[in-house]
Each structure stands twice: as structure tokens, then as C-alpha cells.
């Protein structure tokens, strides 16, 4: 069963972040990441939450700690430490 990741962070500029996010689709595919949804906070359009799936929690942890993955986020304008939840569906 796939593992769900909820990743929330603040970005400098949503349009710039979205452009960078879309440009990294091949990296996500290579890493086994499937995007389930991208959301903006109602109160702050620069507060972004991405819901994705990966094959396992172990793979999710490895990907999220990968320097290349982190560098791509910084390049796209992420300006806060991410709040990340790694979840296994039970029902």
C-alpha cells in the first residue's frame, strides 16, 4: 500500500514556486512520487500544501532527506521549514 505525504511550507511567491514545482515533474516521477493535490491556504496564497504518495514510508523518508530534492525546493522559493506528515492508510 502506498504511503501518503502531506507537506506544508511557506513560499516566497506562489507563481514562482508553481513554475519550479511543475518543472520538477520528471524528478518526482523518477523518485516514485505521485501528486494527489496542491493547495493554497485561504488566508495566505504563499502557504502551500502538497499531498503526494510514495511506494513506502522508507522511500518517503529517503526522498525527503535527499539533498537534490531539498535543493529543488529552495530553488523554487520555499522560505520556511516544511511541516511534513508521513502517513500509512489504515482504513
Proportion in helices: 25-40%
Number of helices: 4
CATH fold assignment: Alpha-Beta Plaits
Shape verdict: globular
Write the element-wise H/E pattern from the N-terminal end onward.
Answer: EHHEEHHE
> Which structural class fits the helix and strand makeup?
alpha+beta
- The radius of gyration computed from the alpha-carbon positions, rounded to a whole number of angstroms, is 13 Å
Estimate what percentage of residues fall within beta strands: 25-35%
Order of strands in the sheet with most strands: 2-3-1-4
CATH architecture: 2-Layer Sandwich
Number of strands: 4
CATH class: Alpha Beta
How would you characterize the overall build of this protein?
A hairpin with a 6-residue loop joins strand 2 and strand 3 (47-54). The protein has 91 residues and is of the alpha+beta class. A four-stranded antiparallel beta sheet has the order 2-3-1-4. The termini are close together. The chain is built from four helices and four strands. It has a single domain, classed as Alpha-Beta Plaits. The protein is globular, with a radius of gyration of 13 Å.
Amino acid at each position: 500500500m502506498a504511503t501518503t505525504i502531506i507537506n506544508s511550507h511557506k513560499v516566497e511567491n506562489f507563481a514562482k514556486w508553481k513554475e519550479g514545482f511543475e518543472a520538477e515533474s520528471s524528478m518526482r516521477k523518477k523518485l516514485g512520487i505521485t501528486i494527489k493535490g496542491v493547495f493554497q491556504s485561504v488566508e495566505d496564497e504563499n502557504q502551500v500544501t502538497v499531498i503526494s504518495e510514495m511506494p513506502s514510508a522508507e522511500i518517503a523518508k529517503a526522498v525527503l532527506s535527499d539533498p537534490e530534492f531539498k535543493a529543488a525546493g529552495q530553488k523554487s522559493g520555499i522560505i520556511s521549514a516544511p511541516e511534513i506528515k508521513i502517513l500509512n492508510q489504515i482504513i
